[in-house]
Amino acid sequence: MNFISVVVFSIVIHGSWSEEQLKFPPSFMFGAASAAYQVEGGWNVSDKGLSMWDKILHDRPELVANRNNGDVACDSYHLWRRDIEMCEELGLNMYRFSISWSRLLPSGFPNHISEDGKNYYNNLIDGLLEKGIQPLVTMNHFDLPMSLQDLGGWANPLIADWFADYAEVVFSLYADRVKYWLTINEAYIQCDGGYHMEAAPFFEDMKLGRYLCNKNVLIAHAKAYRIYDEQYRYKYHGKVSLSTLFFWFKPFTPEDQEVTDLTIEHWEGRYAHAIFSKEGGWPRKLEKLLNDNAKKEGYWHPRLPPFTPEEIELVRGTYDFYALNHYTTRLVRRVNPGEPPGKWFFEGSDELNTVMFKDPSWPSTPVYWFSVYPPGLREQLNWLNATYDVKEIIITENGVPSLDPGLVDTQRLEYYRDYLEQVLLAINDGVNVTGYTAWTLMDNFEWLSGYIAKFGLYAVDFSDPNRTRTPRESARYYSSVIRSRMIHPPQDKTKLNYV
Ligand code: GAL
To answer: How far is the CA of 372 from the centre of ligand 1 (A)?
Structure first.
């Protein structure tokens, strides 16, 4: 802890924040986020191609709660003007959305660029800019074109070039106006989830598929970054990164520190080390452990596909900021003798022989994997700052689920307040956090939970063909934070500053 953080820490303990310390820096950007498949609908309008989520959920609707899918979702394909209006109502500085690859390039390749797809995103970008709201654009948020999945998707190394071609089209169309870019959303969920039945393509292949995907995602990101760097940066001066997800992890006992460090490397280092560390490549200790595991299991090739020296150089340093999606925290411990490791990936790892769980003292939410531990965000931000050479961090997702469709969402309002407080504390620790985008602007298609789990600042009436959007209390609260650029002192929940 440095001097400033000691001061801030004691202020928090004593509950006497000065007005200055409750304030976000004037340039801090507040935003909200969404993603194409979760909000757009319009799955077959015009010449749109199929994404893997479109196709797989049509073929296997039982994968999702209530057999829901994103065919219509929030109908943002038609209601984008209302979405911009909501961003304006909230007073957002930034709106994060994603481009549907198969809407822009129906075949997955640049042989044909959809006029309709092109215009849709032009309208959205221009509409936001007219209101003074910066677009933060994700190029791929889980919805790979099915045509590319049929060719092996993220497990095929050729995808790095296919993605680079797509990125080149996207930059050529929009880089004149978009200054913040994310190449790929949460590679961890795409690869580790996609190869563990949690996300499309819904494969179960934890020994090979997820690690092939892991490496290919990194190369794809790097190629896209290099295109921007070489052809667009000098003209437009934008910033490019990829978004990572990790839960924060804490050791159950001090003896579990080593295995907790490995867990962080397994979740984060596998996607971040190659890009953000000075040495590049895989995190060394983890690489050895996983490759030893593979050898013991009789595999002839290393579990983590090796990088060539050229690939290490290609990927290393391909970032302009760190984009962090943070939701919750887990405790980690090594398995006891005879105990099986956690099966599901939020419950532990058979590679690391761990069990992960929630501290029973942390408030729970109606969604079983999610408990509330705000200091985890500050700890994680400090860890990132100390571990990688990051000059700037933007929190690209943070939010809490509920099952209640109603407008009184006290837990969400308090979650935002408490997590934003941790962002302020991290800034006071010396971490350069420059932005925060809440997940999510409005209730939407929440992947395997369909429309049951709700993360929205705005409620959406999914039984209404107009998909009416109504602000929740959390939206009013968030908008008052944005307008005042401050939160109220801790422990003062009776005076949450919302109007
Ligand atoms: C993230 C994902 C979002 C959203 C969120 C809430 O993993 O990027 O699309 O669904 O989780 O679960």
So the answer is: 16
